[in-house]
Specification:
Rossmann fold, 8-stranded mixed β-sheet
Length: about 700
């Protein structure tokens, strides 16, 4: 139930349209341009919070926006993926040649997006100028030669889009190593089969690994003698327990390198990567955090770098990379420093040093000779594709962020805060958030008035917040809202103990933390306690609904975007990847049915007397529309003011520009009616109907 986060790996980054390269600038110059200076503070008009006029409109949020996905280096060329809302959310493959020319390698209307695990990632790969990708329309594997139309490699399945491919890698013989997901006409999650396969250039397929409930990260060693992969079984998610297996292709023998549940505690392994010498590098959480390890065939696993915080993250999508292995033995990983991250270089002798770069979040790392190419972003920079010379730290922007045309004074900078929360038997008694203050150089608050608070609840729930520029957050802060993006217990980035603090407590610990955040900020005199709202998507929507039904009076309004209302319905009807997710978060299913019923917001819907806006995709398979319909029906029956927008053609998360705008402006209009402020007339926002 993950929701999209910026600068993540896979297709979950927020970026924009652009081309060409530039020297690496300071972050505020990278994404904004100077405009007419704002009035001096004494001259600014005083306006009620929420009604502040702003250039950060929903049109600006989606204008030329693009999500940046995986990055690949192919000889002297650099490739990356862009998800473009203005083109119906299709994912385009983009190629940058050494002379700086940037071209769309994948012509419209082709869409390189896989539905394996429903969240996708790893939908394409490239070698020697030839790309292979999974087409979203039919989920078949296609080949794309330079200047040609894509050609299907795999046969059309009997069940439309019933055979899907992800985590693609091309071998020396032109075959494609992939994870294949095969669906049954029954439509049942239990009948879906996940395997590692090799697809020959003529489309013939050999099954290499079958049997585990899930597999990922198939990788051949450089000499072609060994195959590694990750596997895990229900009811585990890959961040609970995943096993790293290596098979000798000479004799078929297999060796478990790390991970799984065979030891004294569960261990999660992510992102195995071979270096040129045949050493296998990976991240594992055996020390509490996802730290860096390596294994040489015939030897023991060695701890290489424990940064004290998670270096890697949860595997919601395929194709993630938080590690770059340079040919000269240097290793580059992102490590947390202060409120963000720095690229840390490990020299062959084990010494460490950081690269001084004007960015705070890094993803999709890949080596390019003596350099690293990655996606980078920061509090004042939307994601860019960046090349960094590891020896000197010299950086070049290969794909700049869009020019927002804003003075930097418009941008609210986040503050990382840690606050006390309700203790439970997890032993974790604090939570975290990024707090964005209201920021608008053209107006000031009415004397004596505190700003309304918008608490953001991220999806997952096994996920986390990042200190990157998101215009969808600045949309609120520039209008006079304080925004708190909460890393409740169960979030990633703080180690396994913090992550596991939500096990068996979803709907309790997360609710306590968002409530504690709102109360803490109110006690600090930073927000108006009478005008606190909470909003979230997917799993975050569940927390919103649970907070409104179990803690009435804390929040004066809420917004649920494709949120979970009925845990029982979710357990009985969702896709394979998450079909046993709730066994850990709530209770074993179906033995714990009573717990599911008690934790479900729909069970307590009679207590819901807080105005609520509901936004839903009509084709959502992760959280089906029936969940939203249950909530809306209850609101209607209870006579509670509410708004409901159902978006045809949308799935889990909104990808189309017009729908992103409608949801954002609709939510603002909803709060304006509930909190009693005027919408800026210049934007022409049509008020959303309250029912």
């Amino acid at each position: 139930m993950s929701s999209e986060r910026p600068c993540s790996d896979g297709n979950r980054a927020a970026g924009a349209d652009g081309a060409g390269g530039a020297a690496c600038p300071p972050p505020t110059v990278d994404t904004v341009t100077a405009s007419t200076p704002a009035p001096s503070p004494d001259d600014r008009p005083a306006l009620p919070h929420g009604s502040w006029p702003t250039p950060i409109t929903s049109e600006l949020v989606v204008r030329a926006a693009a999500g940046l996905g995986e990055v690949a280096v192919d000889g002297a060329d650099v490739w990356w993926a862009e998800s473009r809302p203005a083109e119906g959310g299709r994912t385009v493959l983009v190629r940058r040649s050494p002379d700086g020319a940037v071209t769309d390698a994948l012509p419209a209307p082709w869409n390189a997006r896989t539905r394996v695990h429903e969240y996708g990632g790893g939908a394409w790969t490239v070698r020697d100028g030839v790309a292979w990708f999974t087409s979203f329309a039919d989920q078949r594997l296609h080949r794309l030669d330079a200047g040609a139309e894509p050609v299907a490699v795999t046969a059309e399945p009997e069940l439309p889009a019933g055979v899907r491919f992800a985590d693609l890698r091309v071998g020396d013989d032109g075959s494609v190593l992939a994870v294949r997901e095969t669906h049954s006409p029954t439509g049942a999650a239990a009948d879906v089969v996940n395997e590692v396969v090799s697809v020959a250039p003529d489309g013939s397929t050999e099954v290499l690994v079958t049997g585990p409930d899930f597999v990922s990260d198939p990788r051949l060693s450089p000499d072609g003698q060994r195959l590694c992969w990750l596997q895990w079984e229900h009811p585990d998610m890959p961040w609970d327990s995943a096993t790293l297996v290596v098979r000798s292709l000479a004799d078929g023998s297999e060796h478990v390198v790390a991970g799984g549940r065979s030891g004294g505690r569960a261990e999660s392994v992510v992102q195995p990567t071979w270096d040129d010498e045949g050493t296998l590098w990976f991240f594992a959480d055996r020390t509490d955090v996802w730290a860096l390890y390596r294994w040489r065939p015939g030897g023991d696993v060695e701890l290489v770098l424990d940064a004290g915080t998670d270096i890697a993250g949860p595997q919601w999508v395929f194709g993630q990379s938080r590690l770059a292995l340079l040919p000269d033995g240097r290793v580059v990983v992102p490590c947390r420093a202060g409120d963000g991250e720095r690229l840390t270089v490990r020299e062959p002798d084990g010494t460490l040093h950081d690269l001084d770069l004007p960015y705070a979040v890094f993803g999709s790392l890949t080596a390019a000779g003596t350099a690293v190419v990655c996606v980078a972003a920061g509090p004042t920079s939307e994601p860019v594709v960046l090349r960094v010379e590891v020896g000197t730290g010299a950086a070049e922007v290969l794909r700049p962020a869009r020019d927002l045309g804003l003075d930097p004074a418009w941008l609210s900078r986040p503050e990382h805060v840690t606050f006390p929360t309700e203790p439970d038997d997890s032993g974790v008694g604090e939570a975290h958030a990024l707090v964005y203050p209201p920021t608008n150089p053209g107006v000031r608050a009415v004397d004596g008035h505190l700003p309304p608070l918008l608490v953001l609840v991220h999806g997952g729930p096994t996920s986390g917040v990042q200190a990157t520029l998101r215009t969808a957050v600045q949309y609120w802060t520039s209008r006079g809202f304080t925004v708190a993006d909460v890393d409740y217990r169960g979030s990633t980035g703080y180690g396994r103990r913090y992550r596991d603090a939500l096990q068996g407590r979803w709907g309790l610990a997360d609710v306590a933390d968002v409530v504690a955040c709102a109360r803490w900020l109110a006690e600090q005199g930073r927000v108006d306690p009478a005008r606190c709202a909470v909003r979230g998507g997917s799993a975050g929507g569940f927390t919103v609904l649970a907070a409104l039904t179990s803690r009435p009076g804390v929040f004066a309004a809420g917004a649920s975007l494709y949120g979970v209302a009925d845990l029982t319905a979710l357990a009985e009807d969702t896709h394979k990847f998450e079909s046993r997710y709730l066994d850990g978060l709530v209770a074993p299913w179906p033995e714990g049915r009573d717990v599911y019923t008690e934790r479900s917001p729909i069970t307590h819907i009679a207590a819901l007397d807080t105005p609520l806006a509901v936004f839903q995709g009509e084709e959502d398979r992760v959280v089906p529309p029936a969940q939203a319909e249950l909530v809306v029906a209850a609101l209607r029956a209870n006579g509670v003011p509410h708004a409901y927008l159902l978006f045809p053609g949308e799935q889990h998360g909104f990808r189309r520009a017009e729908n992103i705008r409608a949801a954002l402006d609709g939510e603002l209009s909803f709060y304006a009616q509930v909190f009693g402020f005027d919408l800026p007339a210049a934007e022409g926002i049509e008020p959303i109907p309250l029912r």
